[in-house]
Amino acid sequence: MDTPQLLALAAALGWASGLRLYAAVFLVGAAGYLGWVDLPQGLHVLQHPGMLAASGFMCCVEFFADKIPLVDSLWDVVHTVIRIPAGAALAAATLGADGTTMTWIAALLGGSLAATSHVAKLTTRAAVNTSPEPLSNIGVSLLEDGWVVFMLWLAASHPLAFAVALALTLAMAVLLMVVLFKFLRAVGHRLAQFFSGSHAPQNT
After folding, report:
1. Of 18, 28, 24, whose CA–CA distance to 113 is shortest?
2. pLDDT in tens, 53-79
3. What's the CA gap between 144 and 66, in Å, rounded?
4. Three-state SS letters, 37-63
5. pTM score
6. What sign for the dihedral angle of Cα 29, 34, 38, 44?
């Protein structure tokens, strides 16, 4: 892989880790194992059969957990301490693990991208879960699945196009976080008023 492809792969793995960590690990590892992509030395562990089995299993678990309202939000909260460090580690491993300045920069950017996509996902799912019907949750989850696969493919095949798509995706993520945070704050305020009113003493 040339330098633009390596940089794109590092950014893609960082960003995808915040949405679908196990899918990103499995898909990239499978691509390397099948010879579709010549992975850098730091990512060779992903194409080991044992790692493929583990990441494939967790990918399946996450796929179904992410389709169940409230379970998906709980899954996201638990994985807050996993996705962001993993995104940093995967990005750093893409550019080497020799402690060079570029490796540390990759780790910082990878962790930042993972944090951004993770918080956007967490906020979006919390807003979607305010709806009682499950179809919107499933639809959003499938959209995330497809977008992660597409972005990983784009990073490996068309690095410059990936850079543009990533910039647009990050801008949309920030906009969603701002809008949905205000929405969730309003919902929380209404719920607080409802419960405080339900416990208020009634006048006789």
Report:
1. 18
2. 999 999 999 999 999 888 888 999 899
3. 10
4. CCCCHHHHHHHCHHHHHHHHHHHHHHH
5. 0.85
6. positive
Q: Which two tokens stand for residue 131?
A: 């709806």
Average of per-residue pLDDT across 124-153? 86
pLDDT in tens, 144-192: 999 999 999 999 999 999 999 999 999 998 888 888 777 556 655 565 6
Cα–Cα distances in Å, from 122 out to 66, 146, 188?
11, 18, 16
- What is residue 1's three-state secondary structure? coil
Query: Quick one: pLDDT at residue 171?
Result: 93
For residue 80, how far is the Cα from the chain centroid?
A: 10
Half-sphere exposure of 28 (CA within 13 A, CB side): 32
Q: Check: CB of residue 88 under 8 Å from CB of residue 107.
A: yes
Q: What span, in angstroms and rounded, lies between the C-alpha atoms of 74 and 78?
A: 6
Report H helices in the chain.
Answer: 3-33, 49-65, 71-78, 80-94, 101-128, 135-157, 159-198
The mean pLDDT of the chain is: 86
Q: Are 73 and 11 in contact (CB under 8 A)?
A: no
Q: Which amino acid is at 6?
A: L
Among 187, 66, 69, 67, which Cα is nearest to 128's? Answer: 69
